[in-house]
TrEMBL record:
UniProt site (Deprotonates C-terminal active site Cys): D25
Species assigned in the record: Pleurotus ostreatus
Record's protein name: Thioredoxin
Highest taxon, organism lineage: Eukaryota
Residues at the site labelled Contributes to redox potential value: G32, P33
PROSITE patterns, per database record: THIOREDOXIN_1, THIOREDOXIN_2
Thioredoxin domain ranges (all copies): 1-109
Disulphide bond pairs: C31-C34
Leader sequence residues: none
Length: 109
């Protein structure tokens, strides 16, 4: 499943409260580590074992209302949501930890 861009606050609320596991990458265009790990997130999202997990990216500069509401202080920040709640958070570009977060999301289906 491709990683979709999320920029509207009401859409963000709908998605995280959908009942499905959702992984969101909070990133910025000026963030080198964000650009480094982005292809890894794309690869993970294409894995058929996690096909029930939804994947989104939020540019914290373009979607500052979402970033402020979620109190995002560092990029990249990856969050796994289920039923509107944060299940797990990863701050930083750690491919192994990101794979673990995505795998945990697949178990929430």
């Amino acid at each position: 499943m491709p990683v979709k861009v999320l920029s509207k606050f009401d859409e963000f609320q709908t998605i995280i409260n959908s009942g499905e596991p959702v992984v969101i990458d909070f990133w910025a265009t000026w963030c080198g580590p964000c650009r480094m790990i982005s292809p890894i997130l794309e690869q993970l999202s294409d894995n058929p074992d996690v096909s029930k997990v939804q994947f989104y990216k939020v540019d914290v500069d373009e979607a500052d209302e979402i970033a402020k509401d979620q109190q995002i202080k560092a990029m990249p920040t990856f969050r796994l949501y289920k039923d509107g709640k944060i299940v797990k958070e990863l701050v930083g570009a750690n491919p192994g930890a990101l794979q673990g977060l995505v795998s945990e999301g697949a178990l929430l289906v």
